[in-house]
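We were asked to recover a plausible sequence for a given structure. The inputs and outputs are reproduced exactly as logged, with field labels preserved.

PROBLEM: sequence recovery
POSITIONS: 388
GIVEN STRUCTURE:
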């Protein structure tokens, strides 16, 4: 239901009420005049009922363009899932290509001024701006993707992308001929480092000789730099490429060079059919539907949510026919284990670059450990940049 429909409905109701009141006065004279206060009370109740039927206004702030084919595209699919699920009970809007940092605060405040009562910020760099805006607008619920700070009216949510990275690594380890894998990294935060490490661990689970090289582009969506990074890795001997960036540029570069690569965040198989080995996808729909239902039901509360394969938020799809059956079977086993909890990716012994244990034998990393990963595991070459 749009606001215009709501206004039309209210005007229509008011007009019918006026006609009915006039007819009653003409037909019954002074006897009906005593009923006027009851009619006034009914008017107020009906107006309140119409007001309650206004749709919940929901807004999304996107760091990239909706057509990036990756991260932002996946979030927008989740937004559309909300509309499909709730129909005229909601009204959603979005702003794309919102820079991380101070400019995000301006956009968020503008979304509040438009009457949105549920606002999703879909990248790590919105954390501090969202906290500021949330503090000034206690009647609005804020949802921040990939962050770690909360407030009474601000919740964090994330997807366990490292699970998809690990499964992709299993395939990469089974497909490489050079034993050298390449990763185009976006920004050196724990989320991305965790994915690089998990990809490497997955590859090493089937091929202990694996070495991983990393090129950082210091941005989420920059196709020219992503292309340059991918070509640089190929020049260094990598024959299977992975990425934590948002465009299909890495896959397209692999296609032109006759190498292999993966899709990231959404199914990118169409961008490089020969090079594409699989796509690690995020399905934001289930969480976005839950968050919206929480607000509509009045049950929303702050906290931190982190969903993965178990909850249907992460999957590895469109696995190429070029991948051997035994490797596919290994991926299926990992996926099943993640679903039922029988398999844990980050379980010791796991060693860092220096050969020392970062997780002792049989030790299982908790979410606090995973959120704070700022090191490369053994097999990943180079050093981690200091940050943005």
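RECOVERED SEQUENCE:
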């Amino acid at each position: 239901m749009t606001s215009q429909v709501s206004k039309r409905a209210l005007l229509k109701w008011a007009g019918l009420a006026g006609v009915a009141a006039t007819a009653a006065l003409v037909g019954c004279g002074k006897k009906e005049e005593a009923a006027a206060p009851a009619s006034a009370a009914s008017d107020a109740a009906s107006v309140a009922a119409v007001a309650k039927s206004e749709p919940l206004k929901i807004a999304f702030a996107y760091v990239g363009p909706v057509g990036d084919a990756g991260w932002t595209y996946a979030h927008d699919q989740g937004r559309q899932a909300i509309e499909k699920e709730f129909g005229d009970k909601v009204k959603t809007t979005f702003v794309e290509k919102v820079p991380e940092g101070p400019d995000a605060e301006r956009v968020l405040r503008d979304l509040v001024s438009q009457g949105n009562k549920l606002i999703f910020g879909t990248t790590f760099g919105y954390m501090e701006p969202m906290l500021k805006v949330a503090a000034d607008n206690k009647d609005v619920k804020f949802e921040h993707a990939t962050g770690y700070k909360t407030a009474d009216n601000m919740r964090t949510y994330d997807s366990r992308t490292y699970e998809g990275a690990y499964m992709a690594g299993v395939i990469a380890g089974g497909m490489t001929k050079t034993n050298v894998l390449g990763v185009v990294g976006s920004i050196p935060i724990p989320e991305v480092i965790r994915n690089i490490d998990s990809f490497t661990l997955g590859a090493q689970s089937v091929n202990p000789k694996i070495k991983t090289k990393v090129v950082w582009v210091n941005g989420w969506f920059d196709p020219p730099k992503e292309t340059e990074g991918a070509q640089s890795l190929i020049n260094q001997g990598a024959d299977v490429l992975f990425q934590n960036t948002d465009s299909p540029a890495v896959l397209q570069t692999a296609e032109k060079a006759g190498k292999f690569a993966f899709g990231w965040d959404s199914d990118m198989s169409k961008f490089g059919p020969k090079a594409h080995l699989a796509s690690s996808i995020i399905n934001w729909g289930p969480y976005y539907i839950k968050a919206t239902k929480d607000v509509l039901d009045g049950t929303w509360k702050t906290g931190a949510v982190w969903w993965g394969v178990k909850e249907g938020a992460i999957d590895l799809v469109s696995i190429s026919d070029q991948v051997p059956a035994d490797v596919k079977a290994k991926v299926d086993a990992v996926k099943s284990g993640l679903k039922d909890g029988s398999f844990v990716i980050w379980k010791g012994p796991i060693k860092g670059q220096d050969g020392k244990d970062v997780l002792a034998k049989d030790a299982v990393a908790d979410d606090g450990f995973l959120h704070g990963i700022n090191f490369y595991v053994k097999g990943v070459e180079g050093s981690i940049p200091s940050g943005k």
